[in-house]
Amino acid sequence: MSGALARIEHWEKEIEAINEGSSQVVLGRGREMLSHARWRAEREFPSQWGSQKMSINIGCNSVPTTSEALSKDISALVAQIGK
Predict the structure, then answer these.
(1) How far apart are the C-alpha atoms of 46 and 53, rounded to whole Å?
(2) Which residue in 31, 36, 62, 60 sits closest to 49, CA to CA?
(3) Chain segment 30-78, per-residue pLDDT in tens
(4) Burial status of residue 5 (CB atoms within 10 A of its CB: 0-12, 13-18, 19 or more)
(5) Could you give the CA distance from residue 34 to residue 4 in angstroms, rounded to a whole number?
(6) Distance, CA of 24 to CA of 6 (rounded, Å)
(7) What SS3 class is residue 60?
């Protein structure tokens, strides 16, 4: 994996070294080569450089209730309070 990282770092440094006097061709080439190095790293080492899948589990413990069920629950609570 050090080769992939070295390629990416090389082209990142090349892009950082570009100044205002450099031509747009040099900048375009640097971006393209960096993009290719990243693409290659994703293919060679997907666990390190590839897209990471994320899963989210959302749980719900409440049960949907109807107005009729709520009325029964309220009646039961009122009956317990009245005791």
Answers:
(1) 11
(2) 36
(3) 999 999 999 999 988 888 888 877 777 767 666 667 888 788 888 888 8
(4) middle
(5) 11
(6) 24
(7) coil
d(CA 27, CA 12): 11
Q: What is the pLDDT of residue 71?
A: 84
Which pair of tokens denotes residue 41?
């790293």
- What DSSP designation does 23 have? -
Going by pLDDT thresholds of 50, 70 and 90, the confidence category of residue 1 is: low
Token pair for residue 14? 């090349």
User: What gap in Å lies between CA 70 and CA 76, rounded to an integer?
Assistant: 10
Domain parsing of the chain, residue ranges:
1-50
Q: How far apart are CA 16 and CA 34, in angstroms?
A: 12
